[in-house]
Amino acid sequence: MKVMVVGGGGREHAIIKKIRENKEVEKIYALPGNGGIAADAECIAIPASDIDRITEFAKARGIDYAIVAPDDPLVAGCVDKLEEAGIRCFGPRACAAVIEGSKVFSKELMKKYGIPTAAYEVFSDVESALEYIKTAPVPTVIKADGLALGKGVIIANTRREAEDAVLSIMRDKQFGASGDKIVIEEFLEGPEVSVLSFTDGKTVVPMVSSMDHKRAKDGDEGLNTGGMGTVAPNPYYSEAIAKECMEKIFIPTINAMNSEGRTFKGCLYFGLMITKDGPKVIEYNCRFGDPETQVVLPLLKSDLLTVMMAVTDGTLEKTPVEFYDRHACCVVIASDGYPLSYEKGFAISADTGVWDSVFVAGAKLVHENEVRQGSDDIRSIRDEYAPAPEGMRLVNSGGRVLGCTAVADSLKEAVDGAYRLAGKIHFENAYYRRDIGARALAAGK
Ligand code: AMP
Ligand code: GLY
After folding, report:
1. How far is the centre of ligand 2, averaged over its atoms, from the C-alpha of 39 (Å)?
2. Is the CB of 283 under 6 A from ligand 1?
3. Which of 427, 212, 229 is nearest to 336 (CA)?
4. What stretches of 233-318 adopt beta strand conformation (E)?
5. pTM confidence score
6. Could you give the CA distance from residue 139 to residue 162 in angstroms, rounded to a whole number?
7. pLDDT digits over 109-142, tens only?
């Protein structure tokens, strides 16, 4: 079987490594993949946003199954296009991916169907938003309607900050057309839980829960990022809360999407906050989370491709989905400076034997003579091994560069294991948080 995975981050690497376990798979293509994914799949230089070329490629190579992982192509209708061309796919069609593509849509869906979420107002002009802020309680949360690379949410602690956020999103178009409308919502408090689920539109099967660490710096300080590390399961997600989420959030969401004629098939991600009034939805994503996937999939005992195909075929109810009763931790190594500006092009080196547990994100292969010169001691100590062909080197090319994942019988061992791995990887401006899992460990006691 020939499988194609659209995307090129750590999430896609985790999906590809898991899919390789299926004996039916003879070939995996990654579009575009990255320098580390190249060790596990053939990377094709077609951007994940180029839906026409992706579809042409799939037809020309006789792809049997396509997995569309990132939000942009899903929201833009990549699955619709591939299905029209007769290709079986994992991922929602555009009409369902709107659950992530428009925050106004998702908030209105929750209101209409009584799904617990923060109270909110929608604005499509600057003046009425500014007027509303004059009396709104603070802190308050301002969200651009559309996709904004995970940066479209601003928590304003004062009215002044709220005004600035409205102006930069709506007037200065910080996120382009994604800011034509905004949602201003109630600030909620409580631990956050990520729950990814498989759904074929009839059955919803939650995966093991996880905890993301969104801020750039230790102690949840610094700017919001795509995620600096994860642990699974999340100790705040008790069995009682899981049951409540299933009854009040997961099943009602699937039913609501069906009632709207927008059946969701794929991975539906519930970003939840466990407030004193019970669990509430902070956001929906129409895809696997990143770096949640890097801890959730290593704990999946069942065959991923079999489960995905059951989602496509609408047979999820009859398909077992099992997880190991273990713990996982992923520590993201970023380029220092992320999520703002950072330097790229430094060679990544690692001790032998670590790459099996590392998911590669913002890294690419370059010829040895294109590697940027870092400090001498780093180059001379660790040049032993990197997953690169002869004459090539893996260099950092993005903000989040690698995810180091360890699986163990206890959370403590998983966290220690992930940090041991991170300590064996080197590049000039590598940066990672030192407290991934600390909050979960404290909560678990
Ligand atoms: P998002 O980009 O939608 O994942 O939101 C980024 C982060 O903003 C979330 O992970 C929460 O920590 C925070 N957030 C979003 N909405 C709210 C809210 N209503 N109350 C408090 N925090 C929020
Ligand atoms: N880690 C959060 C996300 O994937 O959106």
Report:
1. 25
2. yes
3. 427
4. 266-275, 278-285
5. 0.95
6. 9
7. 999 999 999 999 999 999 999 999 999 999 999 9
